[in-house]
Design a protein that fits this description.
It contains 15 helices and 25 strands. It has about 550 residues and is of the alpha+beta class. α1 runs parallel beside α5 and α1 runs parallel beside α9.
Length: about 550
């Protein structure tokens, strides 16, 4: 019998409660921990997953891990995929060299393969080093929200507890209880085709550091190289096993080579699962003091391996905004931009992956003919066009995500820049330059992920305008800044950012450009910051 004893809280009031300790919830917790925000993260499962599950980590996610100092750990444990191959009836028709397409666009021009179990472990280790723990076997029971708080009822070992919190984040997956309690529709459809996911070893004569998307007259499969010589195989469930509740390795392996028209042998399976693929997204990412992130807000087909990466982007976008509001550095209205920025992207992603999945999975005669004979030829032509190469990599890797139409990207006198210059709402590009110590540095690494960061570019001998520096001192802790003088070593950086004689680039903690100007436009900067920052914020404890 469940005890109804209501405990107000085990500790001081929590500023944020995160429901769900998958990659999305864990990354949100990691970022809040860096800000010193009080939070609790609960998970109904007994511990982190032991299954491989989501594997692919794109460049945009790796750049976030770089920001919080754990990218090297992911690279050390993972496997770099250098190319994607278009495979038809056992023959490579086209090869997409990711490392070439992404060269110069990111520090991570590859697809990293790492089991979700290991990714979660790295994030949990990050939290524990900072004195935080996931509360396992703790289930959300209910919650209610008022004007200034959320009362969250959770249950652990049969005992219920009420947590007083300022904000609630639902990162609890496709069956999100947070979403259900908020009564937010999860519109979309379930694909009629069942897929299997298999981790095993593969005997073939193909490269172990490349990915293969394979088509045959009868079926489809994707092959993702994993660490330690294993391989993730995704494909259609054979017709003979379609009505089974659970699928076995024998169901998939029996006749697999014939179905795929390939010389291949699958063996030594370690995990297999069957799942129904969906495409759904919510109409709202935020209601009052409650937010949805990751699979609780959007799910889509496995095409492009976008799922986990999109959830990580949600978490990074939301966490810094929550933190600066909690610290009273920013107005609460800032939190409305989370939905403004992430919902349109989720909508576009669901639609684009839906189209790609239908092209991949359709069994209609014309579509199959296009897939087998026409698409490889078209792809061969397109891949010879440099802008197409860049477009493909930027979109698949998610470094091309833009919030240019959002409130936080609205500027005043944003003039004097050429059309190719990075714009407000776009990610700060990967640019290397030589610092004052003569070392080559990635400008992205100069951005402090717990504050806004202002780059001051000056062609004069002094570092920056004194009036500008005096103004910035009022935002100490909220805005960090550095001056980059024009020198022969920084000439290329100035050129790439299209700075003529001097100017400003203000970067958000999530690496997106907030504001830019071709001069020390103090009035323009003031007007922009007044959109969401609080000048006389509480400096207590700083």
């Amino acid at each position: 019998m469940t005890s109804r004893a209501i405990i107000e809280s085990k500790s001081d009031k929590s500023e944020v409660v995160i429901v769900g300790a998958g990659p999305t919830g864990l990354l949100a917790a990691c970022q809040l921990a860096r800000y010193g925000v009080k939070f609790r993260i609960i998970e109904k499962n007994k511990g982190p997953t032991t299954q491989s599950r989501a594997l692919a980590i794109h460049a945009a996610s790796m750049e976030m891990f770089l920001q919080i100092g754990i990218a090297d750990n992911f690279v050390r444990l993972g496997k770099k995929v250098q190319a994607v191959n278009y495979f038809v009836k056992g023959k490579v028709e086209q090869r997409i060299p990711l490392s070439e397409f992404g060269k110069g666009a990111t520090q991570f021009p590859f697809l990293l393969i790492l089991e979700q179990s290991k990714s979660e472990k790295l994030l949990i280790d990050f939290l524990e080093r900072r004195g935080h723990k996931v509360e396992w076997e703790t289930e959300l029971v209910d919650f209610s929200q008022g004007d200034d708080n959320v009362k969250v009822v959770v249950k652990n070992s049969g005992i219920e507890e009420t947590i007083q919190a300022d904000w609630l984040v639902g990162a609890d997956g496709a069956r999100s209880q947070v979403r259900q309690i908020l009564d937010i529709p999860f519109a979309g459809q379930t694909y009629p085709i069942d897929l299997f996911v298999l981790d095993c070893r593969v005997n073939w004569n193909l490269k172990e550091d490349e990915m293969y998307i394979a088509f045959s007259d009868h079926s489809f499969a994707g092959f993702f190289p994993m660490p330690e010589g294993r391989c993730r195989v995704i494909g259609f469930v054979p017709k003979e096993a379609a009505l089974k509740e659970e699928i076995t390795f024998e169901d998939v392996n029996n006749g697999f080579a014939d179905r795929m028209q390939m010389k291949i042998k699958l063996y030594d399976p370690s995990w297999i699962s069957m799942y129904h693929s969906h495409h759904r997204y919510v109409s709202q990412f935020k209601i009052g003091r409650c937010f949805l992130a990751g699979d609780s807000a959007h799910i889509h087909s496995p095409v492009g391996a976008q799922g986990m990466n999109t959830g990580l982007q949600d978490a990074f976008n939301l966490a810094w905004k929550l933190a600066v509001v909690i610290k009273k550095w920013a107005k609460k209205d800032l939190l409305n931009t989370y939905q403004e920025e992430r919902l349109p992207f989720a909508r576009r992603l669901v639609r684009s992956t839906d189209r790609a999945f239908n092209m991949t999975a359709s069994q209609k005669g014309l579509m199959k003919y296009m897939r087998m004979h026409i698409a490889p030829r078209i792809l061969a032509i397109l891949l010879k066009i440099k802008p197409v190469e860049r477009f493909l990599f930027r979109n698949i890797s998610q470094i091309g995500i833009s919030y240019r139409d959002g409130l936080l990207s609205a500027n005043g006198k944003d003039t004097g820049f050429g059309s190719s210059a990075p714009k407000p709402g776009e990610r700060l590009p990967y640019l290397e330059f030589e610092d004052r110590l003569g070392q080559r540095v990635n400008i992205q690494k100069r951005v402090d992920a717990t504050s806004l960061h202002l780059f001051i570019f000056s062609s004069f001998s002094k570092d920056a305008d004194e009036e500008l520096i005096k103004f910035l001192e009022q935002y100490k802790g909220v805005i960090t800044y550095e001056s980059i003088l024009f020198t022969p070593a920084t000439r290329e950086l100035y050129k790439n950012l299209d700075i003529m004689e001097g100017g400003l680039y203000l970067i958000r903690p999530d690496l997106y450009i907030a504001y830019r100007s071709q001069s020390f436009d103090l009035d323009g900067l003031k007007n922009y910051l007044q959109l969401f920052l609080i000048l006389n914020y509480n400096r207590k404890g700083m």
